[in-house]
TrEMBL record:
One of its GO terms (molecular function) is NADP binding. Gene3D superfamilies: FAD/NAD(P)-binding domain (3.50.50.60). The keyword Flavoprotein applies. InterPro entries: FAD-bind_Monooxygenase_sf (IPR051209), FAD/NAD-bd_sf (IPR036188), Flavin_mOase-like (IPR020946). Belongs to the FAD-binding monooxygenase family. The keyword Oxidoreductase applies. This is Putative flavo protein. Keywords: FAD, Flavoprotein, Oxidoreductase. Pfam families: FMO-like.
Length: 504
């Protein structure tokens, strides 16, 4: 970058979850940039701060679902609960002194590229004072808002006359004791919260339009001796992490191509496992409703040691249909009505529209969220977009996973962004932005790679796919292939940003 010694580069990180915390740390470690961080919530943690429903946890083992540069020997169990993951992120933020740069309870309203300055003008406001908008200019913008942010609430469910709650907006003051409870959905949050609801309620209805593939979690408690070994014996924890990584990577080949012999065998074994669990629980007749008729991996693969056993309890009724309408406290599904006192929505998030009210306005005056509403999202290397210079978006289209730790993907994306900034300085560019043809090629290649995979041919509808057809949220390969793809930014793929005023 021309005359970069005369200018202290600035960066804003939006969000303080895994993506935001990781980006801020690497900007400081690798580039010496102390980034500002704006977080909408009252604390760091992202989805692990906002999701507090009972038994909330991660399906990926904790020694892998953590930063590679900040391993934790003190995880209490293989799949740690939400409070531990939340505490881990708080610990990391404190260790790397990020709190001094974080504005909590603050919302970014708009970020607009300013051609005259080659910077982003960012408008933001404290949550209690939206009328008092502040503005600041930044050289770089890192978006860590993630997709698990805005709860998805179907319109037909808005008229419920009883108590309604979304799992992402949990209210611990609600008493479920001896109540008739309905829960809509059977994704990760539903699978995790069901045992709690079953134990508390007098009657529990689980409405699920299509069943999910749920395998055993095989939860393991770590003894003090094991944690001692992780902490004090060199390389034990690192070796264990690599073992987990390659174990999860191997799962990818169990369902990527649904017609393969391997995938068919996995489906057969998993179906047999579900049937066996239901037989042991005394409800073999539930198998017809709970064993999916689509390929394993088409929807997110889930893990639980108690899910099928919970659905087999006497006070639980599985309703194999979606809720079509609501009249008062009466839910209509499959031509039958079910009266409930409390309605729990485990209906997921607005994955395809994560920006909410935030406007990211690029060089041509186009809002990114409007652009992605009108056509299938396209990116360069899943991180950058043509027309949006110096903007790096974590966990956007093409970066989700169905088999491994998404934290590894985040770290790859962050390092890609850091390498882009290094190249920008090396080649003395005023800004860095992918060329349109490079973006088109990457997006086209990704789309072609996905055509024959389980996510498009597995026979289901999931959040992996968008309304305009085609999978836009998922990476088509392994995490290793993702790392390889993002390892070295190719300078010829970028606009030569010399035409505007230099940053001095």
């Amino acid at each position: 970058m021309p005359n970069n010694k005369e200018k202290n580069l600035t960066a804003l990180v939006i969000g303080a979850g895994f993506s935001g915390i990781g980006a801020a740390i690497q900007l400081s470690k690798q580039l010496g940039i102390t980034a500002d961080i704006i977080e909408h919530s009252s604390e760091v943690g992202g989805t692990w701060h906002s999701n507090t429903y009972p038994d909330c946890a991660c399906d990926i083992q904790s020694h892998l679902y953590s930063f590679s540069f900040e391993l934790n020997p003190d995880w209490s169990q293989s799949h740690s609960p939400q409070p531990e993951i939340y505490a881990y992120l708080q610990h990391v933020a404190k260790k790397y002194d990020l709190y001094k740069s974080i504005q909590l309870n603050t919302t970014v309203l708009k970020a607009e590229w300013c051609k005259e300055r080659n910077q982003w003008k960012v408008d933001y406001a404290h949550n209690d004072h939206y009328d008092k908008i502040q503005s600041k200019y930044y050289d770089f913008l890192f978006s860590g808002i993630g997709g698990l942010r805005i709860p998805k609430i179907p319109k037909q469910l808005e008229g419920f006359s009883g108590t309604a709650i979304h799992t992402a907006q949990w209210d611990s003051n609600i008493d479920f004791t001896n109540k008739r409870v309905g829960i809509i959905g059977n994704g990760a949050s539903a699978v995790q919260v069901l045992p709690f609801l079953q134990k508390k309620s007098s009657k529990l209805y689980n409405f699920q339009r299509t069943p999910s593939w749920v395998g055993p979690r095989q939860q393991t408690e770590f003894s003090n001796l094991v944690k001692f070994c992780f902490r004090w014996i060199p390389f034990v924890m690192r070796f264990y992490r690599w073992y987990l990584y390659w174990t999860y990577e191997s799962r990818f080949y169990g369902f990527k191509y649904p017609d393969s012999k391997f995938a068919k065998k996995v489906t057969q074994l998993l179906a047999a496992s579900i049937s066996s669990r239901l037989v042991k629980a005394g409800k073999p007749d539930l198998a017809s409703s709970l064993i999916p008729n689509y390929a394993v991996g088409c929807k997110r693969f889930l893990a639980s040691d108690t899910y099928y056993e919970t659905l087999a309890q006497d006070n639980v009724t599985v309703v194999p249909a979606g809720v079509d309408k609501i009249e008062g406290n009466k839910l209509w599904a499959g031509n039958s009505a079910y009266e409930v006192d409390i309605l729990v929505l485990a209906t997921g998030f607005e994955i395809q529209h994560p920006f909410g009210h935030l406007d990211i306005i690029g060089k041509n005056g186009i809002s990114l969220k409007d652009l992605w509403k009108n056509e299938p999202p396209k990116t360069y290397k899943t991180v950058m977009m043509h027309g949006y210079p110096n903007f790096f978006h974590m966990l956007g289209p093409g970066a989700a996973l169905g088999h491994n730790s998404v934290v590894a993907m985040i770290e790859c994306q962050i390092n890609f962004g850091i390498d882009c900034i290094k190249n920008m300085k090396r080649f003395q560019l005023n800004y860095i932005e992918p060329k349109k043809d490079a973006q088109e090629k990457f997006s086209s290649d990704l789309k072609n790679d996905l055509k024959s995979t389980v996510w498009l041919t597995g026979g289901c509808k999931s959040w992996y796919q968008n309304d305009n057809s085609g999978s836009v949220n998922l990476w088509s390969g392994t995490v290793t292939s993702f790392w390889w793809n993002l390892r070295n930014p190719t300078i010829k793929d970028f606009v030569q940003g010399h035409e505007s005023k230099k940053l001095v």
